[in-house]
Design a protein that fits this description.
93 residues, mainly alpha, 4 helices
Amino acid sequence: MDDPAHPLTCQQCRELAAELALNVLSGRERVGALAHLDRCAGCRDMVCALTVTADRLVELLPDADPPAGFEQRATTAVRAAARRGSRATPLRD
């Protein structure tokens, strides 16, 4: 996404800011966004504020274990989706 000949603009970085703060960007998008943040204090401050907000939201989640059998049901569902050829990545046994 970001290469030396075509660096991200502030607008492009703002569009990726929330996902960057949540740490869910793909590797290529993340590299581009971080390169932009290295040279743009305004975007860096915005992403920093979003990151702090995201971290505080996690603190609001109740401490609770998943319901009994959750892991098994999730694993079964992912494997079934993989067998059907959906976009899920098959798990190795």
